[in-house]
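During the first year of the project, the team set up a workflow for recording each protein of interest as an amino acid sequence followed immediately by a discrete structure-token representation. This format lets reviewers and collaborators read both layers of information side by side without switching files. As required by the reporting guidelines, we include two representative entries from the current panel. The first entry is reproduced here exactly as it appears in our internal archive.
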Amino acid sequence: MENVAINLSDLGGGIVDGIPPLNIEDNQFERLVNFYPFGTKLVRRAGVRQVTTVAADSDLTALLTFSNEGDHYVVAGLVNGFAWNNAGVMTRIPKIDGVLPGGVYLENEKPWSMVQYKSEIFAVRAGSYLQRLTSASAELAGIRAPTVPGAVVGGAGGVNIGFHSYFVTFVTSTGNESPESPEVTIECVADSEVTLTIPVSVTPRVVKRRIWRSLSNDAGQGWLVDTIEDNTTTAYVDTKPDAELGIPFEYGNLLPPGSYAPFATSRALCSWKHRLWVIDEAALYASKTGRFETFDQTFQGFDQYSGHVLRGVAAWDERLVVATTKKMFYVTQTGVDETGVRFDIEELSEEHGCVAHHSIKTAEGNLFWFAGDNVYMSTGGKPRAITTVRVRKILDQAKALHSDRWEFAVGSINTDLGWYQLSLSVNSSTRNDTTIIYDYKNDRWFTFEHFSARAAASYAPSAVMEYFDENYARTTYAGFGEKRHLYELNSGERDVDVQVRAIAKGKAFQRNNGTSVFRKLSINCTSANEYMTLRLYRDGESELSAINERLIYLMQSPARDWKRVALSGQGPQVTSVPRLKSRSFQVEIDYTGDTAIEVNGMLLAVASYEMTRRPI
């Protein structure tokens, strides 16, 4: 017999669940829930604070901080619309009703994607039209073209002899311009005046209209006649000769993709280079610079003929990432010529596509996304899988049971700690329940579960957003789907009123080729008025087959960081069958309490027995 001490002074290796626990490193864990590695120690995560007192009237699917004239609001995308946090009350943002498509929000669980530009928010989700929001209203984005203007040739005036074509555009307070109206053509047999009847927009945010006219006998180009600075005047008399016309009309104003079509086709959006970029399943659409309701470019060729579809779009520094379910592409701005701004499309990955738009996140030049089989990362070149064996069981279970909920996976970045966080459905068929977290500065994984101490079911965010105040202090807000409240992550000690349960199940140790008897355990952790359960397992058995279990008080007298525990393989049995010697053993920490404790190390005392042959 040999007495052996195993000194675990480094607990910072993270989770590795895809290979047998005998084969992981000493500082790694088969299971790691609500503990995160920080340096060489484990730290229990902070809690969750409920921000609102009155919940929204439907589930939360997205969050955005809306900043306007010094005020800041948290806006939530809901299953059936939008709401904002009004002094702790999730207050519905009223829609502007009408007969137009998009006037009514149908129940749709698909997550919204939202961006702010100046004083407006733009939002879209699979199955819904592009929406424009403020804290006061939500309505269908895009300005429909005016109806054809009326035109009557009158007496003598300045409009040159010949044929002229007129058309009209609507303009909003933010400078967005509608597509042009149908043209009306008149003939002046002499220099004349022309009386026009100007259409009025039914859209309240239209504040002006522009009148355009072709030169005499030249119908190929419109020129600005005048701007009517209201949306009420209907009569205008044109007396200007061709030489006094203003700027030429820039053709190509398009409505947002799918607007006013029988079925909404857009899926996701982002802001890049002062343009709004929207995808449907087959193409990428770009707005004009600074005008997010006026579109002018369409890009195709994203492998849509292979049976795969576009799933995500995101800004990545000087690149725009466009994701299909099979491949990853990026767009770059390559210059400007007489035809406008030029963009090129390049392939980033030909095999590792993306299944969830909201999983695409960037941090410190890195790009992360969820492909279903793995999480991938690129620093600018060829991507690499960063999950592999480290959260393999979790991803395999999510794939086997809930691949239909992959598109609900939501990523976020903790900029303070350097974490990429991905919440997804692992056990639940109705919500995200597990967050897998990658420490990209130290290349290690761990997991979080929320609201799980008192219930079998856990929760993970359905939406996450970071907010930085004027002093650059960070607050992380989250929604948990069906809970319908707004929450602050990393705040307090509890998940609202639920104590946080943290579990760390470590490496399986085996001494030589013989058997071992576990003698005792010393653990270095925070002294607190709390209790911790320590369990001992043998030969890779399940959680239901622990051979010993001890509940220890963390405020021992005298107070000390090291606590010695008589967790012996020869002590009282948890199971009815005595088990003394074993080929391997594991130790598990199971802690539920109000204190965010730290575990700095463990010392395991083991008696090892060599197997020897007895002579015959």
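The second entry, processed by the same pipeline in the following quarter, appears below.
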Amino acid sequence: MNASEYYNKFATAYDAKIKSPTIDSHLMRETKKLFKRQKITDGSILDVGCATGVLKESLGGAFTYTGIDVSSKMLSIAAKRGYTTIHGDMLAALRRIPPNFFDHVLCISALYWIPNAEEVLDEMRRIARLTVTATLEQVAPIVAQHKRDMNTVIFDHTKLKVSGVIDDFMFSAWTSPTAGKRIAARMLFIRKPLILLVWEKNRPLPLTLLRKSTWATFGLLSSVITSDAKKLFPYTITTDPFDIKRSLGAIKAFQKRNKLTFGAIYTQNEELVWQTAFIAGKLHLTTSDFRAIQSTSRNKLVMRNLLNKDHKHIVPFMKLQDIRSQMTQVEQIGFPNITKPAGGASSILVFKNTSFQSLEANLKKIKEGIRANRALYKPKEKTPYVLNLFGDKAAQQVIMEKYIPGKEISVEGFVAHGKVYILGGHDKPEINGEYEFFDNIYSTPSQVLSSYNRAIAHVVRKAVKHIGLTTSPFHVEMKVQKGRPLIVEIGARFGGGPLVENIESAYGFNLHDMYLKYLLEGVLPKRVAPKMASTFVMFQVLKAGKLKSLPSVVTYLKRFPEVKEIKFYVRPGEPIRNAKTGMQYLGHAILHSSPSVHNSNVAKELLFKMNKDLLLRIRS
């Protein structure tokens, strides 16, 4: 008699039997206690060897259930309980299910029917996005009786060595109705490797890292350092991410206390990329040398000097200290040129100079802006949207670079053990006037990247090598002069703001997902053609005051049919800071079209009209 025949025989009586005092089953009770301990309250469940679906009665919570069983009669009862059912051999059925398909995969009191439990557990790991739970019954005392009386073969797997188990215990499981003997079981709980997301307290977390579609594939974006977003995460570690020694101690203590392991450590916070790389190295996780990553952040002069040693594809630049004593160098760069702080971000305090007079005036503005930004940033408060851009003297230095007319492009991708993968890019159209150096418009796919793909890829590969990045995301800003790509700067992270979401709209994949999938599963990216063009427009004005009212979204949607979304970040009555020092964006719009049509001109028109409209609504 096989398992199918055995369970078909008493399918209708199964529920009553396992609930009877004679059998006294503790299986569901222990599973429920385990899920409560692990804070698992929702998700999709694959119940392997589900029988009549009694697991659903026990667990409760917001779960959806799918069951596999060899007994068709058992499955018909499970279906009445709301199960989606799969009839057939356990291993064969598991092999037909795609990877990472269910949040939680369980096999309670079924593995003793098969000889190759290890193979089944491997398949369960492959299918699970988050957790695997299984019992291994100590059936040795009744093996001989089963074979003699019922002509069935069962297997005792309790001595099986299983890796990655974080909860492993024996308990009194049930009483054999045929032999009258009490059966013990070993409960195993496996959580797939987790991602440790590093973020700074009170800073807004990026939505692209928090959407369930982003992280459910890999496990849990858990343990947000110093974040109060506890509703979004089952675990948090409270420490100071800027204090590396303290953070490392807290992480190791957390892992030991909770019996959890991290498969990757990740941040998109520009201020924390090198600290994150340092911690990853100490945890023996894949990363670039933290010194290489450190060279791309905080002080752009360090990064440019590294690229400039033997890599000529870089926009000509100099460190500007005193105009009068550096006249010759300034003349070599020529006019027009651009000045910016070495520690800036988001084009803050970036100015175009057309003469020595404008250079002197703009240099004064940069120094005043640095002082204003430092006054806005209050370390104890960690004011949202205000970065500590100029916290050290090196970051307060000024860079002068040659002005290259035309679109600026950004290139997004990652390095996997030294191999460069370019995944997408944006064009940032040239805007003349007061918004020339603001991060206002991004269009993807990049027409410039498409036209000069091979040349740009060559330059990016060389830049990554000279910086020393071996495994890391990258964001490269470039200009193309007469077909020759020139690097403005490179960062060891994906582009901030809307860039990740914009690429996801156009290409259908998420950059964070793709990189984390490589870190956790070794899956390398494949080239994907864009399904649409997506343009992101950021509204930002140069006036401080109070916002009286908001423009009509309906009016703008009617005027610009390409616009799919307009969203404001502020409400009437709220104070508006000076955009040059406070980094405050007031809202955005998203435009979509076919991949071959770019909306740059429409985006510019929308930007100017919306900014003018907002400007009139701000009371000084």
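For the second entry, the following points were noted during internal review. Residues 210-231, 380-387 have pLDDT under 50 and may be disordered. The longest strand covers residues 165-175. Both points are flagged for discussion at the upcoming steering committee meeting.
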